[in-house]
Amino acid sequence: MNGNPAAASLAIPEKRRALVLPGGGGRGAYQVGVAKAFQEAGIEFEMAFGTSIGGVNATMIAQGHLKRLEDLWCNTRPWDIFRLPSAQQIGRMMFGRKLGLLDTSPLEELLRREVDLKALKSSRTKIGFFTTDLCCLETRLVTIDDIMSTNELVDVLMATSAVPIAFPPRQLRGNGLWVDGGLVRNTPLRAAIDRGADEIFMVLLHPETVNVCPTSMWQVLARCLDIVLDASASKELELAQLYNRLIAEGAAAAAGMRAVNIEVFQPRRPLNTTLLEIDPDRSKRLIQQGYEDAMDHLVELYHRQTPARAS
Predict the structure, then answer these.
(1) If you count Cβ atoms within 10 Å of the first and of the last residue's Cβ in the chain, which end, N or C, has fewer?
(2) pTM of the predicted model, to two decimals?
(3) What is the rounded CA–CA span in Å between residue 202 and residue 247?
(4) How confident is the model at residue 280 (pLDDT cuts 50, 70, 90)?
């Protein structure tokens, strides 16, 4: 946002900010463009919470590797993330010894190359991930303080990225069958509020409106997941708005609480891709779209804040 007054204004660390990156599969490139706009505006975060691809993106951002993350998105194809099952794997699936349709070993190899536990531990942005156990239906927040090794970090990222049915679940420390936490809590707003955030920047990956019918089995599966993730996000936003309304009204139930400003960054036009579609050219367009949408939003935010500061 070079030359734009919004950059200097929003860069002032007046508030304890949290970044919330929910899931959305191949649409995750959009979050990279939004993060580029934040970086250009000098916006920094004390906390970051991610689910599914949002967890992977948040990891690279917290490491300080945003440029590397952009390069990955602009060069990654589906087979760099997953493979179709082999005949042997299909046999294991039929007899209940394989719990996902796709082979995600390429994703695991990529994560092992790219994650940097030391950088995450020393980052000013403290990160947390959400994942859900299919065994007991527990949804857990795993923070960087809970993670003691690169193997544990990779396990957590594989678990939070495990889209049920498509990707196999993951054990954590030898227990459970952990999958994408977005099924229950795609936008972990409450975690950010509970940890003292004054301002939350949340980057959703579904557009404001959708009016396209699915035309294949994979698109039907992706649309069903969209419905679940959208419902999860809407529920958390409604609870956060109720939380702020109770505070504004001085309700007894809100005694001692503080209002939290929530900025929702969201595609303003269709993204034209599903969760399982990953294409470098499309990713480049999504990054640019995210950047432009975020720039517009930050300018609007600057203009909303300017009268208050002037007074």
Answers:
(1) C
(2) 0.85
(3) 21
(4) very high
